[in-house]
Amino acid sequence: MKLAIQTKDFSFTYPKTKEATLKGINIPIYANKVTALIGPSGCGKSTLLRSCNRIHDVYPGNSYDGEILLYDNNGEKAENILQYKKENDLINLRQRIGMIFQKPTPFPMSIKDNITYGLKLSGIKNKTELLDRTEIALKGAALWEEVKDRLNNSAMGLSGGQQQRLCIARAVALKPQVLLFDEPTSALDPISTASIEELISELKNELTVLIVTHNMQQASRISDYTGFMYLGDLVEYNVTETIFLNPKEKKTEDYITGRFG
Amino acid sequence: MKTLTEELNDINVAMSKIINDILQANIIIANGLEKCDTDMLETAKKSLNNMSSKTSDIDNKIIKILALYSPEARDLRLIVSIFKITNELVRASSNTRSFIKGFSSYCDELDMQTIKEYAMPLQKATIECLQGVFDMVRSDCVDEIQELFNGVLIAENKTDDLYELLQENIFKHAKEIEDFTKFTKILNALRKSEKIADRALEIANLLLFAKLGGHIGSVE
Amino acid sequence: MNRLLLNKIVITLSTLAALMGISFLLWILVTLSIRGYHSIDWHIFTTDLVNNGLRNVIIGQFILAGIATVIGVPVGMMAGIYLREYGINSKFAMIVRNLSDVMMSAPSIVIGIFVYGIFVVPFGGFNGWAGVIALAILMIPIVVSTTDSMLSLVPQELREAGIALGASKAQVIYKIVLSAAKIGLITGVLLAFARVIGETAPLLFTSANNNFFSFGLSNQYPSLTVSIYHLALFPSQTSQNLAWAGSAILTLLVLFINLITRFIFKPRKQK
Question: Is C42-265 in CATH node 3.40.50.11270?
Fold first, then answer.
């Protein structure tokens, strides 16, 4: 099993807080698989997700401990991404590990410009190449047919589900190795949710997915591996079927059966 | 990970295959009844090997689907029905094997008339029930499904009637028969056929619930 | 019954209070219109103050406010961007923000006197540059405040989305955040301009006034507001009429700019 990411005793403390939000997390994220993080509010799952692309660094004062290893495409050599200090390294990291947020975040530009924004950042200037990759990205996000005639219209005119798919297309255009999803469908209606879940299942052929979700059924539907977190600890991690059918820890079972959280 | 539709299709196909195996075994029995071919009967018995493990596979798949997919409505009715149908399939299969076992030893003893008048029609009616069930699994048309169910109901009633007549007939000739225990054993064997029809009707009832809705309940 | 009656009383009283407030506004507008109407004709827009016209002072007011805007808006906006985007947790930013808020309430005459002491006395006399600087000082805290507010309305996820794509902080601010806040920022600039174009006290002792048309900012410079002040005090009927005309024009101008921001910019704001 090829690894994409592996954390080693990873701990995280928010600025001006005594107690660590994440306590010594060891979790494997396998390549070309969907891994889900579930748990009650405040358990640290979003914190863990956001550590993977170092987006916490936008807000100074955090402290990290341990390692987060990012493997190359062959699953062999790995680098500890917590060691990156230069802005260039962080920029490269974020082009390898993309992120989709809970609230759809289209930029206030045309649909086309939204996609080419990231591409231009990574140095692509050739207009034909930009258009080609835009088309590929929009097709990959199952959005091309709906927007191909209005690429120059503002992205703000799209529906919520379309906007979220646009954000996915925007991230996918950079051909990242990993995509992080932070509760991507909690602001969407059931039909948009279903289409995005289908999209995520297809995306894992091209890349690795780590998804945080409040919705247990979503985790059980789409993920291959599931990690249950509680108060900063990774209580249980296993193949999804085991977690939902035969969980080993009582806390996991209590959460899944709705006894708390 | 497979989608819910793919998983449902898998268990539908697996159940279909088991029903077909039981149906074919019973058809072979009918042929064997006429010719008394013990080899044929042995082949039929072998095709029903490992029934428990096959149905357990289906049961475990259903549990996994319930845990992972939270199915609703039609999908939920289908897998809950199949969960109960597997029990009926195990019993129908074991009844078929008992029938074969009970019958092989006494094939030559039964006279042609009894066979033609009661045993053959009984087994044919049982086969009708099984065929009806098999067709119900593959149908999606509401009217057709209801019609097929009615067919199974009528055929099952026929097996009850035929078995009673057969029993009466044999007891009528009781004084003439030397080895009466032999005949009770033959009766027992034929009773299995009637039981298979009972199981088929239960399965048909569960399929009716799965495809048309309502509540789960016994046929009686 | 008691509650219904009380309700009716309160509604009536509040409606009367609202009408009273509006009626004063309407009274001002009506008075200005009537008195001003008689005095406004082509003559006012084509001759200078020296010939009892208002051409030079109207243009002068625009030039003073315009240059003040060119200086004040970039400074104010950069400061606002610093406060909201770079200085979230810094104590220095907090101090700057507080100071800026205080400056917004600073009496405009005090600003005028300050600039008088720094830019008029050492340079030997009233001059247009001093007027521009006084207006700019008045404008900057307003622009800082509106920029700060408008940028704070941009959702944080938008910034994070830019960073998550590999943009640098500067790229996120200048291409994404400012774009998202564009309408609000422009509204803020227009409102600051409208405020500044109607100020008198900062100009009183800095650029003072000029009866003649001029582009030379190193001397006394013509402005509408100061003209109204002087004309109103002068006892001739012509001057009085001119003062009313000037007031009407100034009021219409400020009203017009405010209406633009209200009807053209607001309804197009993002959902």
Answer: no
